[in-house]
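User: Hey, quick favor. My workstation is busy. Could you predict this chain's structure for me?
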Amino acid sequence: MIVSTKGRYALRVMVHFATKGAGNYIPLKEIAEAENISQKYLESIMTVLSKAGFVDAVHGKGGGYRLNREPKDYTVGSILKLTEGNLAAVSCTSQGPAACSRSTCCQTKPMWDRLDAMIDSFFEGITLADLLEESKNNKK
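Assistant: No problem, here it is.
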């Protein structure tokens, strides 16, 4: 599994929001500069996050984006799954059109399924609040 820049940047942006706290909307330009992400690329990421209800968006003067929940209510897994589609370690465990035609007879598939479950459990077990706390502890 390789997490794309879209997934990594979305996670960085969500951590940025969590760091800034609730309340004020942060303009896209400010986020792009703070995170060193192209504003154009960031627009596409923010559209995905906004449509999924992960952030609130206000357009126009004084507008921007903000979290609409507490950092403890966002898991890294939910953010990565939203932006990546899935966190499958290998394509043969994917669902839908990418699913492997040998999945019913493959002797290695159960191993890959267990790995996928471990990855999912790992990322679902980490919240934005956890990342903030870990970062704070590492700065001591």
